[in-house]
Specification:
Distance between the termini: 31 Å
Number of helices: 13
CATH superfamily of the largest domain: Type I PLP-dependent aspartate aminotransferase-like (Major domain)
Order of helices and strands: EHHEHEHEHEHEHEEHHEEHEHHEH
Shape: globular
CATH architecture of the largest domain: 3-Layer(aba) Sandwich
Radius of gyration: 21 Å
Helix content: 40-55%
Structural class: alpha/beta
Number of strands: 12
């Protein structure tokens, strides 16, 4: 028995998604590119699955292209947008608190001669809309900004960034990493005003190994992978039908329960925040964020890695930041310029609709005990 508070890192595969994958792998396992009946059946199923994910995202099926994960979608979007806008210039605008799937490609591009402006957050982890407009230059080819920060839960001004691009007359393309926002917040790519948008399956109870990239209709991206012409000729390779079927099932279910999920996550976060601040001496909430499923806190004077392992031994699972950091200091929390004691003690608590009152009790009791029992070693 364990109590899981790391849904921002990954989620369990829901039964509906697992069943859909099983059926695709054991009954409808034909190659969608094959011309005989078994292949045509797989192609028809693929069309339906694409429509399901597109419907949950709020875009046309022809604007949705399957990838292996959110990281691939981010890399594809960034590289292809710059190739498409190569005559505009070699300047990129992003934020200092993006996921590594955006920051690492940007750093690689800097080594190739691009110039990147990293917008800095305030102490609450917010990016002001005016920062985007101030950063846009005549040679800005791309603005890339996440919708929900995966460690803070702050909602970034993506819609306002789109408005700033239009207001300045810039030809810059706008990409959004919406991995943490998909089916957590109400939005569509059109409402945000983006050209490109990335999502991932394993954050919404689909398996790992499947994601998607929204490409605005009329935007002619260069292909990511050349070959047999799958995914509209943009990403060749036989489609991963099992993962896609599961992604579609999870997206369908998530869309049906979106409002219910939002209400439950909002209530869970509020209850957890109230109890933790009241019952765990010294614990501080770092930001109110805006996403309903992420609560960043700190235990000043305690090493977060030690607290995470101590809680893990007692069956309470949370993190000290993005799983991609693998124990390294978080660039997101560092960007807040917190005092060292607070920075050392940061913890990310992220919720699922499956979390129960028993889970919440275990979380509060675990952090209370950690503060009490680890104090003599870490004070």
């Amino acid at each position: 028995m364990f109590h899981y508070f790391d849904s921002a890192a990954t989620t369990p595969v829901c039964p509906e998604a697992a069943q859909a994958a099983l059926e695709a792998m054991t009954r409808g396992w034909g190659n969608p590119s094959s011309v005989y009946e078994f292949g045509r059946q797989a192609a028809q199923a693929l069309t339906l699955w694409r429509a399901d994910v597109a419907g949950a995202l709020g875009c046309a099926p022809g604007e949705l292209f399957f990838t292996s994960c959110g990281t691939e979608s981010d890399n594809w979007a960034i590289r292809s947008a710059l190739a498409l806008n190569r005559r505009v210039g070699r300047h990129i605008v992003t934020t200092a608190i993006e996921h590594a799937a955006v920051l690492e490609p940007c750093r690689a591009l800097e080594r190739e001669g691009y110039e990147v402006t990293y917008l800095q957050p305030d102490r609450q982890g917010n990016i002001a809309p005016g920062q985007v407009e101030e950063a846009i230059r005549p040679d800005t080819a791309l603005v890339t900004m996440m919708l929900v920060n995966n460690e803070l839960g702050t909602v970034l001004p993506v819609r306002e960034a789109a408005q700033a691009i239009r207001r300045t007359g810039s030809p810059a393309l706008l990409h959004c990493d919406a991995v943490q926002g998909f089916l957590k917040l109400p939005f569509t790519p059109k409402e945000l005003g983006v050209d490109l948008l990335s999502v991932s399956g394993h954050k919404i109870r689909a398996p790992k190994g499947i994601g998607a990239l929204y490409v605005r209709q009329g935007l002619k991206l260069p292909p990511l992978i050349l070959g047999g012409g799958q995914e509209g000729g943009l990403r060749s390779g036989t489609e991963a039908t099992g993962q896609i079927a599961a992604f579609a099932a999870a997206a369908r279910l998530g869309a049906e329960r979106r409002e219910e999920t939002f209400q439950k996550l909002t209530a869970l976060r509020a209850q957890a925040e109230e109890r933790l601040v009241r019952e765990v001496p010294g614990l501080k909430v770092l930001t109110q964020g805006g996403a309903p499923h992420i609560l960043p806190v700190t235990l000043p004077g305690y090493k977060s890695e030690v607290v995470v392992r101590w809680l893990s031994d007692r069956g309470v699972y949370l993190s000290s930041g993005s799983a991609c950091h693998k124990g390294k200091p978080s660039h997101v929390f560092a960007a807040l310029k917190l005092p060292k004691a607070e920075l050392d003690g940061v913890l990310r608590i992220s919720f699922s609709p499956d979390n129960t009152q028993e889970d919440l009790d275990a979380l509060v009791e675990g952090l209370t005990a950690a503060r009490r029992e680890l104090f003599s070693t870490l004070s």
